[in-house]
Amino acid sequence: MRRIVKAAAPAGFNAWRASHPGACYEDLADEGKDSAQAALCADQGHLCAYCQSRIEPTGDRMRVEHWVAQTDDASRDLEWKNLLGVCPGKTPLPPDAPQPVGRKRRQADEHCDRRRGHRTLNLHPAADPDVAQRFHYHADGRIEGTDEAASKDIEVLNLKHPRLMRNRSAVFERLRQKLGPHGPWSAVELRRQLEQWRTPREGRLPEFTGVAEYHLERWLRKAGGR
Length: 226
Prior knowledge:
It is a single chain. This protein has helices at about 10-20, 30-45, 100-110, 110-115, 150-155, 160-180, 185-200, 210-220, and strands at about 65, 85, 135, 145. The mean pLDDT is about 90. The chain has about 230 residues and is mainly alpha-helical. The protein contains 8 helices and 4 strands.
């Protein structure tokens, strides 16, 4: 996860919510859902709020997640800060991964909100300003929490899914190729890379930006750059 700074809700979304007291997200007209999805993507640089995979407000390329589950507090169903954009959350396991069967196989394929279901989460990427500091990323793509809360969320969201691990590892290798195979690297070049990863192009951040930030900031500290 990385921190999300949410802009104001779309005007049409707010107007519809105000004129429909007691309504839920499923009641929202299609144009309202479309505007909500587009705004969530804009807030998040078109990255899943949990795993940082690419999301788009079209077709089945994203889902709208309620951080406080709808079954836990229906009054927050249309609360803008409670809504997050997440990926579809289902990726078949690679052939070389252990292959569970039945329900366990379905769960192993799933990640993010699809895997979460209605279980409670601890960290809210749009409410916890230090959320990015609660996770460690390894060169091989493994992810670890720095505390119990983060570790539990990793398990609930299945952020150890093999595809996510491969993609995080690929980000590490991409950084090494750009910077050269051997460190330490100059603080100037590390800052330049950080700026590139944090700068959206046509509103889109690179996938797994938070992973790149983690490694670049770690190397920058070693270089005495911050």
